[in-house]
Design goal:
Length: 289
């Protein structure tokens, strides 16, 4: 796992991650070209797995293609869409594809997505998934059956730093640490102070934290209410300020806001990096940096 994101953040490097959603048309050429244009500015690319419970292309195949192009991918593995057999198979596929960084998530419920009649699996949650991967590294699958020990992964997990109440998130974060997680990636925050209670609550836990930031779409802001974007809480005054703008002014103002936020997080010194999400606005990410 030479020069992985885990090694970089442990060495004190400020990591910049860009999120990309596998396309719905099966054609990866545009996604690969965009990711390639980020080289030198972004250290790794987070490949989502049917993000927000919406149908997308194969996360595993997309991550494998990026890896072949010399772009470091972070493969998202979601518990929502597969049981422990399917999840174990995905982990084995990641080994075969030379992928060494996984983001283990439970996954948003289908009620939030575009297939609301789909049945969620949730045979495991993200804590159990992390533990399963660590056991597979030691030569045991989820049922205790022997297998050839796997190479060690860099494991990331999600955390909702702005949750209210925060205590359940802190409790689950500690369980993820005990299970073997290396890095936390928070769901998007919009101000530095949204991270303070979570970081303080972690206390002496040495796991590095990467702050999620979001460049939202105008439609998301217009229709926003607490809970409408799972795990993401936009400050009400910011929502009202953006809603008062026309789409063009909003586009400029929101990009400027995220640019300042990334700079503030970098200078703050309490997080190991940022993960920038900009669904539908991915071509604006370089300008933010």
């Amino acid at each position: 796992m030479a020069d992985s994101i885990c090694e970089r953040v442990r060495s004190g490097s400020f990591e910049v991650v860009g999120r990309l959603d596998p396309p719905r048309n099966g054609n990866l050429s545009q996604l690969v070209a965009l990711a390639a244009s980020w080289k030198g500015k972004i250290g790794s690319v987070l490949v989502t797995d049917n993000a927000s419970a919406r149908l997308g292309g194969s996360a595993l195949l997309t991550a494998e293609r990026l890896g072949r192009e010399g772009i470091e991918p972070i493969l998202t593995v979601s518990c929502r869409d597969g049981n422990r057999i399917a999840l174990g198979s995905t982990v084995l596929g990641a080994v075969a594809a030379s992928l060494r960084t996984l983001l283990c998530v439970s996954g948003d419920h289908p009620a939030f997505g575009d297939h609301q009649d789909a049945k969620p699996v949730y045979d495991m949650d993200s804590v159990q998934l992390i533990a399963m991967v660590r056991n597979m590294e030691q030569g045991r699958d989820a049922s205790g059956n022997e297998l050839e020990p796997l190479p060690r992964f860099c494991l990331a997990a999600a955390a909702c730093a702005s949750a209210d109440p925060l205590a359940p998130q802190l409790s689950k974060a500690r369980k993820k640490v005990r299970a073997g997680v290396d890095i936390f990636v928070t769901l998007p925050v919009f101000r530095v102070d949204q991270l303070e209670p979570f970081l303080n609550g972690l206390g002496e836990i040495s796991v590095k934290v990467i702050a999620g930031v979001l460049l939202p779409r105008y439609e998301e802001v217009v229709s926003y209410k607490d809970g409408s974007i799972p795990g993401t809480f936009i400050p009400h005054d910011l929502v009202e300020q953006w809603r008062a703008m026309d789409p063009g002014a909003f586009s400029s103002a929101s990009a400027d806001h995220v640019k300042r936020l990334v700079a503030d997080l970098r200078s703050w010194g309490k997080v190991a990096g940022v993960c920038i999400s900009a669904p539908g606005r991915e071509d604006e990410i370089l300008g933010i940096l």
